[in-house]
Structures are given as C-alpha cells and as structure tokens.
Automatic annotation (TrEMBL):
Residues 189-327 form the MoaB/Mog domain. GO terms for cellular component: cytosol. Its cofactor is Mg(2+). Its EC number is 2.10.1.1. NCBIfam families: Glp_gephyrin (NF045515), molyb_syn (TIGR00177). This is Molybdopterin molybdenumtransferase. Pathway: Cofactor biosynthesis; molybdopterin biosynthesis. GO terms for molecular function: metal ion binding; molybdopterin molybdotransferase activity.
Length: 423
C-alpha cells in the first residue's frame, strides 16, 4: 500500500520553510552593473539636490528688487556684465541694474535672486555695451531652481532590499555611488529527474517528453533575482539520484529537483532524503497543483522537491522558493504580492484543497479582472505562457462564479507582500 501523507495548509508549509530563511550576504558592484540587482545598503542623499541655486531657463539673472517698477509704460534696462553657461560660475559682482546672461543649469550669481527667460526680454548692443530690457516686475525666487528643492542632504532615498530600477541607478550616479553594495545572488542548483525526459534539441520518441521544467525553473530563479546552476537530468535511479544530489548540494546555496516526489515506484526523492538523513519539513500540502511538493533541510541547505507536473512545479517555486530567495536578497516583503480581483469566468469545480488557478490579470474600467488561462490542470504547460497571476481559490465544497471577488497573487511584479496567507 502506498504511504498515506497528511496534507498541511499552504500557510503552514510556507511558515515551516521560512523558519530557516535568513538574509544573505552583500557584495560591492559598479553602478553600471547595478540595474536589476537588490540594494544591500540604504541610499542616502550625501548632499542636497540641486547642490546650488541654479537657473531652470536660458535667460538673465537679476536682482528682483531692480525690476520692481518695470511695466509696459516703464521698461527697465539692465547692463549685461557677463555670460555663464552650465558648469561655469559668475566672476563679477552684480550691482544694481546689472544682469548676467545665464543658461539652464548654471549656478545663480550670489547677488541675484530671479531669472528672466530670454523670450521676455529685448536685447541690444551699443558701443560694445550689451543691455536687456524688461516690461514687468519679478519677485525674489522667480524662476530659480533652489538648492535642496529636489532633496535635502541626509534623506534616506532608497532602502536596502529595494530593487535597483533605472530611477535608482540615476540616484546612485547623482550621489557618486560609483560602487554600491547589493545583495549577493544566491546560487541555486537544479536537477530534472525522470527517465522520460529528452533534451530540448531531441526529437520526440515513444513515451518520452522534452524536459521543460528545468528551463522554466531556471527562468523563475532569474526572475526572483538569483543565479542558476543547472546540473542536468537524472534518470529514475535511486543510487544515481542520491549520489548526484549529495555531491551537487555542496556546490550551491540550495538545490531544486523536479519530479519524483510522489508515491510512484520510480519516485525516488523521498528515499533520497531519507538516505541523506535530511529533515523533511512536509511532503503534502493542501494545495492544487503541487500537493506533493516536498521540502527538506539538510546541512544548512534547502532541498526543494518540486513536483514533476509543470504547473505544480511552477506554483511550488513561486510560493515556496521565491520567498526564501527574496529574504536572502534582504526583502522585507518576500512573498508574492496580493490584490483582489473579480473572476471573469466560472470556476465551478470544487476542491478540498486551496487551488491556484494560473490566470491573466486585466485592468478594466470596472476594476481588476482575473481570467483563468485555459487548460488548468496540474500537468498543464501551455497555459503557463499566458499567465501573469495566480488566482487563489480557498478549498471547500463550492466552486466559484464569474464576478466573484478573489485573491490574486501577482507573478510579474517586483513588489512583494509580508504574508499573503491566512493567519
Ligand atoms: N497514487 C498517486 N499518484 C499520484 C499522486 C498521489 O498522491 N497518489 N499525486 C499526483 C500528483 S498531485 C502529482 S502533482 C504528481 C507528482 O508527481 P511527481 O512529482 O512524482 O513527478 P513525476 O512522477 O516525476 O512526474 C509527473 C509528471 O510530470 C512530468 N514531468 C516530470 N518532469 C518533467 C520535466 N522536467 N519537464 C516536463 N514534464 C515533466 C512527467 O513526465 C509526469 O507526466 O503525481 C501524481 N500521482
Ligand atoms: O501535486 Mo498535484 O500538482 O496537486 O496535481
Ligand atoms: Mg511521480
């Protein structure tokens, strides 16, 4: 008789896994390599931005008080004493009724407190003396981009654990972070198990299928921000599986296998864990797909035994492996982000287990709608290609109807959640 396994709720499975999760280590990298990485330190404004009062326009810097009486009937003329472009600073003191021709981005001369756009002036030159005339008054501060108006010195702008997006890269460069601490990417080993598996380049043969899971997991690992070491395929052979897993684990931070975790004659992962003396955290979760997902801990490392069924494998990674990776990457919200949406079609099949329906989330004028992605069985592979979300249907005796409000976990969003499961 096959072993009877006791299913535990998904939240319980995730918390058992997370009880071993801890922040990882950091490394320093060049700003040009930082895009897509995770910050290993808070980024602080080490100086104000802008660092000096500057002109936001091409125009003339003046002392506003000199313009107070200017009007159409009383134009006021200024002597233009020098020109400063961005990157240069004025060399002369600006006296009453004098102006400095100034370009966008140039530092305001000390005595000036307003800028007049070129378009609002009339210019002339006589006997080598340049002047400009205005017909309206300006207030102190008009058209000045003030020191510190973007950010004050000392502000914490981006926190450790945040993704370095192009905006963060701009901030790093602004403050002179030529090198920045980022979270070191954990190295995750992958084995695909199964005597039926062919490589991508191979022709189909009777009874065989191509190994899609290893490639899928590699992409999921990268999406989560970690690095992959693919160890290849393993035939369903206990001794070979044991030897290979035993050796490979030493080379990586954690190891993922796919397939061979159920109760079949050639499902050898349970026996491998036993032979290794690994602590099995659970071997049955009340979820579908992925109910047979097994996680073990051995010599300080995770051994993730994901299911062989593609959809089950996919879901197992996102709900169990991803939060461990994100924790290593210093995220305070390591789990998939959760939103509420309306189901856009019936899903009538009841299930005692929590069901994760691979879906597409659509933003409509009536709010968020989640559309299940076609063939949605545990062994489905094609519907994964059109999914960017997992609809979570709690287990029970009823099905769900078009329009029902449901929880949805987002797969393509970098944002995370602290805890998306029931307490
Ligand atoms: N008597 C029972 N049978 C099964 C149970 C059960 O509880 N009692 N659980 C079923 C469930 S649920 C699932 S899910 C599968 C899980 O099976 P395994 O994780 O042991 O995986 P395999 O048996 O190795 O393969 C299952 C399926 O997936 C295909 N596969 C495997 N590896 C890959 C790969 N790398 N790329 C693409 N496809 C892969 C494999 O050919 C099988 O079709 O067990 C049920 N059975
Ligand atoms: O583990 Mo299976 O994927 O529940 O169908
Ligand atoms: Mg099996």
């Amino acid at each position: 008789m096959a072993e009877r396994r006791k299913p535990i709720p998904i939240g319980e499975a995730v918390s058992r896994v997370m009880s071993f999760a801890a922040p990882g280590t950091k490394e320093k990298i060049h700003v040009n390599d930082a895009y897509g990485r995770t910050l290993g330190e808070d980024i602080i404004a080490v100086h104000p931005v802008p660092p000096f009062d500057r002109s936001p326009y091409d125009g003339f810097a003046i002392r506003a008080e000199d313009s107070a009486q200017a009007s159409r009937g009383n134009p006021i003329t200024f002597n233009v004493i020098e020109t400063v472009g961005a990157g240069s600073v004025a060399t002369k003191e600006v006296k009453p009724y004098e102006a400095v021709r100034i370009m966008t981005g140039a530092q305001l001369p000390d005595q000036c407190d307003a800028v007049v756009m070129l378009e609002l002036t009339t210019e002339s030159t006589e006997d080598g003396v340049s002047t400009m005339t205005i017909k309206r008054p300006f207030q102190p501060g008009d058209n000045v981009s003030f020191k510190g108006e973007d950010t004050e010195q000392g502000a914490v702008l981006v926190k450790k654990g945040e993704l370095i997006n192009p905006g963060v890269v701009a901030v790093l460069a602004t403050f002179g972070y030529e090198y920045v601490y980022v979270a070191k990417k954990p190295l995750i080993g992958v084995f695909a198990t199964g005597s039926e598996l062919l490589d991508v380049h191979e022709e189909l043969q009777p009874g065989k299928i191509r190994n899609s899971n290893a490639h899928m997991i590699a992409a999921q690992i990268e999406r989560a921000g970690a690095e992959v070491k693919y160890f290849g395929k393993l035939e369903d052979d206990l001794e070979r599986c044991y030897q290979s897993i035993n050796e490979a684990a030493a080379e990586v931070d954690m190891l993922i296998t796919t397939g061979g975790v159920s109760v079949g004659d050639f499902d050898y992962l349970p026996a491998v864990y036993e032979k290794l003396g690994a602590e099995v955290l659970f071997n049955k979760i009340a979820m579908r797909p992925g109910s047979v997902t097994t996680v073990a801990h051995w010599e300080g490392k995770y051994l993730f035994g994901l299911s062989g069924n593609p959809s089950a494998c996919y879901v197992g990674f996102e709900v169990l492996v991803r939060p461990v990776v994100k924790t290593l990457l210093f995220s305070a919200k390591p789990h998939l982000p959760k939103v509420e949406a309306r189901l856009s079609e019936d899903f009538l099949k009841p299930n005692p287990f929590t069901r994760f329906v691979r879906s597409k989330l659509n933003i409509t004028t009536e709010g968020l709608k989640a559309a299940p992605s076609g063939f949605n069985k545990s062994n489905a592979v094609t519907s994964l290609a059109t999914s960017d979300a997992l609809v979570v249907l709690p287990g029970g005796t009823r099905g769900y109807k078009d329009g029902d409000l449901v929880d949805v976990l987002l797969l393509e969003s970098y944002e995370g959640s602290e805890w998306p499961w029931e307490k």
